[in-house]
Amino acid sequence: MKEKYTIVSAETSSPGHNGLPAENLFDGDLATNWANKEIGVTITHDLGSEKKVDCIAISWSGNNSRKYTFDLEVPVNGTDFTPIATSLESTGTAAKNNSKEYYAIPEQSLRYIRIVNKGNTKNTFINIYEAEIGHR
Predict the structure, then answer these.
(1) With 80 as the cut, is the pLDDT of residue 95 above it?
(2) What is the pTM of this model?
(3) What is the torsion angle, in degrees rounded to the nearest 10, for the CA atoms of residue 12, residue 17, residue 22 and residue 25?
(4) pLDDT tens for residues 49-78?
(5) Domains observed in the chain
(6) Which of 19, 46, 51, 89 has the CA that lies 20 to 30 A from 9?
């Protein structure tokens, strides 16, 4: 990712598992994470202002053989979101090395991007160390 943007806040549709705060998603610390066990739970990242975005990177937590499935959505107006990528899947190997997995999206100017949990190959959880948003 050539340009990584600062995430100024993240809002979730449901509290994190065991009180984990959404701020853990962008604190730069791979020892912290955010998790939730609900299918359909959303995490909306705010870049503070519109930026040209075509990539999101996620550092996944959990068992190395676990593959997470998720959608990415962007706003079509102030309140409604629409999918730009559906049924994306992690490789199931990134957690082993605390590495990031990169997901390309159609380039667009946006302020908000939302991750929608679709579960994983072991259970319904989503579990993320860090998320980054930027331009390739």
Answers:
(1) no
(2) 0.93
(3) -120
(4) 999 999 999 999 875 678 999 999 999 987
(5) 3-50+67-126 (2.60.120.260)
(6) 89
